[in-house]
Structure formats: C-alpha cells, structure tokens
TrEMBL record:
Top-level lineage group: Eukaryota
UniProt-recorded name of the protein: 5'-nucleotidase
Keywords attached to this entry: Hydrolase, Magnesium, Metal-binding
Organism: Coccolithus braarudii
SUPFAM superfamilies: HAD-like
Similarity-based family: Belongs to the 5'(3')-deoxyribonucleotidase family.
Alphabetical list of NCBIfam families matching this protein: HAD-IG-Ncltidse
Length: 481
C-alpha cells in the first residue's frame, strides 16, 4: 500500500529506497508491465518477452539517477542483474531471486490495476466501494440475459412484437454511445469522433459513417446521445438495436398488438424511451432482484480473494465504506452470501466496513448535502431518522460530505471504487476531488488477448517497419528517376 503507481502503471522506486536492486526491479516492472500491476501482490514475470529487455538499460539508468547516483557500471548491483545480457533461463533465475513466479502467456493474470495518473496509497485514508458489479461480481451474461427477459416481457405487455428476439451479449458493450436521432450505436475515439457505427444490428461501412458524421464530434451533454455507462446497460442497448431493425422494416407496426401506441414509437428517439422505461420498470418491479436473491450462486461469482483484499486493506489501516444504491435487504442478502463463507469465525460481512450506506441515490450522493439520513435499525431494514453518519453503523441516504465529516477526511484522502463511469467515477471526482477507480470486467479478456497474442504483435511491428523501409526506398528511387 506504500508503493507509488505511476501513470504508465509500473512500480517506481521512491527516494527512501536506496537499494539499487530495488531500482532495477522497479525498472523491470515499468518495462514488462506498462499497463498492469497486481493490486495486492507483485506481478509475475512472463517467460515470453525476454527479447524486449534489451530496452531496459535506459530505465535502469534513470532509476539510479533518480536516487542521485551515476549510471550503473559493471560490477554494480544493477549491472549484475543487467537484463540486456540475460537469456530466458537467467531471467527466470533473476525472477526467483526477487520472489516472482513465472507464467506463460496463456496463464497471464487478467486482473490488475491500470493507472492514468500517480496514486500513492499512503495518502489514502478511506476506500469506498460500490456493490453491484464491484464488490458483487455478477456473471454479466447471466444477469443481463434475465434483465433482457424482463424488459422484453414488459414491452410484450405493451403490445410490442418481441417474439423471437434473443439476448446477444456480443452485440454491444459498455462505452457504446446511442444516437437517438438516427438510431445508430456508435463507438467514438478519445476526441469524440465516430470511428465505428451500427444502424440497428447492421454495421455501417466507412463511407456511410463519413457521409453521416463527417468531422462531427459527440457532445454527451446533448440530449441526442445516450452513453452506456455500465454493464447494466448492455441488455438495454441489445434490445434497442434489435427493435430498430423491426422499426425500419415496418414489422414493429405490422405485428404489434393492443395496447401498442404507434405515436409513442414514431421515431428512433421515442423507441429508445420505450426501451429505457421498460428496463427501469423491470428493475423497480423487483422480480429480477428477487430471482437473484433466491439463486445468488447462479448470478454471482464467488471469490475468496475479494474478502481477503478487504481484510488486507483493513490490516493496512484503511477505513472502508460501502456506498450502494441498492436497498438494505438486497445488499444484506448478497453480501452475506458472497462474503460470510470466506470470513474468519465470528466475523460477518458488516465487520469489514467502518460504514455501510444503502439507497445512496448516486450521483446525488456526491453532489448535494440536503438528503436526509436514516439509520438501519433492524435486520429486516426498518429505519429511524438520524442526522449524521457514525462509524460502525448502517445507514440509508445521506451524502458524501457526511462521510468526510464522520472520518475527518477530505478530497484526495478518499479512493472510491465503482463500475459506473458517470455516477461512480465522474461525479465523485468532479464534485469532491476524490480519487477514483473504475472496475471493468471487459479488460480481463483484453489483457488475456494481449498476452497470448504478443508474438503476433511483434511480427506485426516488424512487418510495418519493413513496409516503411520499402516505401522509403521506393520514394528515393522515384526522385532519382
């Protein structure tokens, strides 16, 4: 918890670490793991990339210079561990001396911490957690399929022709933006330009994208766009795309049944409202959550590592808080099922937290200080009015300022971990200057793919370099001729 994580995601030696071996080790991590660092254990050293270590010498020299030393000389602690002269076997021996376990690309751990700016855990006094898709690791395809089912059934009750539609988890993902005006699902780059797009379930060609969007940038402040902030939106995006196809072909009107109202589906924007409203009612009605509580093992990944991580953080002196929009009964049921089996005897899940806040109503929790506070007085969720948060108790409602006051902390002393890009990350950062961490299940597949496809990436880089050299030669020949 005391190490500094830099923007590249590597471990950086601090000035108090005078040992040159530590500097070498830090440089190796920065090189080998430019994106990923394990949360509570040092990353393992892969066996498939010894060739890239020839680039480590500048990093080693920089690490030594950061400590006020000259560049490493032969015979020094760094030069002894110089990766530029090591073959694979020697590299594995070096890893063993530093207590690093080797692994193959196929076994590369997909979980890690990806940093966009420095985060020194010494400065963090309180870690707050969301529950859904954060502390509770839902099986996305199972959960979203049921959400899709209940949403579809609500639309069926309104006369929508939804027979034959099936949930497709590969159709959309978190981060997709819906163009409600044109019925398109678009993927934008970091500058807001549309790079890929689908109309309904049909992918648009590059020429079609350029003819529609040209150099237009996406402004999420406009009501035209809807951003899929969370995995809970996957079922919504999937059903909307499928219904667009029916709207375009006329099937939505031709096969509709009473009490279907054509005026409420006269445009792509109206159709989006209908789907969003149905999904909201599917959640509010409670049928989905009742099913999850009855069969939690079917919907939730059970992992003892989650419990151990929280225990480790408490042992490191961090104050822990659970802040969720879910109600008390649902929170108690899932946390009890998921965490209690892995706790030491005599402990229950509430003992992991200094504060539990349910029905938080994020993002308002981060933006207003006028919401009332209620203490959870009984196991079944009966509440009584309260006026402040108190450590060791359970509450409903309230706001972030009360949490800061209860723990005597503020701003950068809080790290909040959640899965919702807007409600959890954006608002906590913008309104309170809290440090934030976004949980993304999707990146696990990406990290695995990068590890397994490393050799292919090297070959692609080599071929691109070769193409550039050939192009340079051709240009020179043209000039001479």
């Amino acid at each position: 918890t005391g190490s500094t994580i830099n923007a590249a995601g590597g471990m950086r030696a601090t000035r108090s670490e005078k040992c040159r071996a530590s500097a070498a080790r830090a440089a190796m991590f920065a090189l080998l793991f430019p994106l990923s660092v394990q949360t509570f254990s040092l990353p393992a050293l892969p066996t498939h990339i010894p060739s890239v270590l020839r680039h480590a010498q500048p990093l080693l020299a920089a690490a030594a210079a950061d400590e006020g030393d000259e560049s490493p000389q032969m015979g020094s602690a760094i030069a002894v561990d110089d990766p530029t002269v090591l073959d694979t076997q020697a590299l594995l021996q070096l890893a063993a001396r530093h207590d690093l376990a080797p692994y193959t690309p196929a076994k590369a751990p997909p979980r890690g911490v990806f940093c966009t700016r420095s985060l020194n855990m010494r400065d963090i006094k309180c870690i707050g957690y969301d529950m859904d898709y954060t502390l509770i690791d839902y099986k996305m395809e199972v959960w979203e399929e049921r959400a899709y089912h209940y949403c579809k059934e609500h639309l069926r009750s309104k006369g929508f022709p939804v027979s034959g539609l099936r949930f497709n988890p590969e159709l959309v993902c978190r981060g997709i933006i819906i163009d409600k005006e044109l019925g398109n699902l678009v993927k934008a780059d970091r500058f807001g330009y549309v790079r890929r797009a689908m109309h309904g379930t049909r992918r648009l060609s590059h020429s079609e994208i350029m003819s529609v969007y040209m150099r237009q940038t996406i402004d999420l402040r406009s009501s035209r766009w809807a951003f899929l902030n969370t995995l809970f939106s996957v079922s919504e995006g999937c059903l909307y795309a499928q219904l667009i196809d029916k709207l375009d072909t006329g099937e939505l009107y031709a096969k509709a049944q009473p009490p279907f109202d054509e005026m409420k589906c006269a445009s792509y924007s109206d159709l989006f409202k209908a789907v969003s409203k149905s999904l909201f009612k599917a959640h509010v009605a409670g049928q989905l959550k009742e099913e999850v509580m009855r069969e939690s093992s079917r919907f939730v990944n059970m992992d003892s590592g989650f419990t151990q991580a929280l225990l480790d953080q408490r042992a490191a002196g961090k104050r822990l808080a659970l802040i969720t929009n879910s109600d008390w009964v649902y929170t108690e049921t899932l946390m009890q099922t998921t965490y209690n089996p892995f706790l030491p005897d005599g402990m229950v899940w509430t003992d992991l937290f200094d504060l539990v806040v349910v029905s938080a109503c994020k993002p308002e929790f981060f933006t207003t200080d006028r919401r009332p506070v209620y203490e959870i007085a009984t196991p079944d969720g009966m509440m009584r009015e309260h006026f402040r948060f108190e450590a060791g108790k359970r509450f409903a409602g309230g706001n972030a300022k009360l949490l800061e006051k209860a723990f005597n902390i503020s701003g950068g002393e809080v790290l909040y971990v959640g899965d919702h890009i807007y409600s959890d990350v954006n608002m906590a950062k913008r309104g309170l200057s809290w440090r934030t961490c976004l949980i993304m299940q999707e990146l696990e597949r990406e990290v695995d793919g990068l590890a397994v496809g490393y050799e292919a990436q090297l070959e692609m880089t080599r071929l691109r370099s070769l193409r550039s050299r050939h192009a340079a030669v051709l240009n020179q020949l043209r000039n001479e001729l």
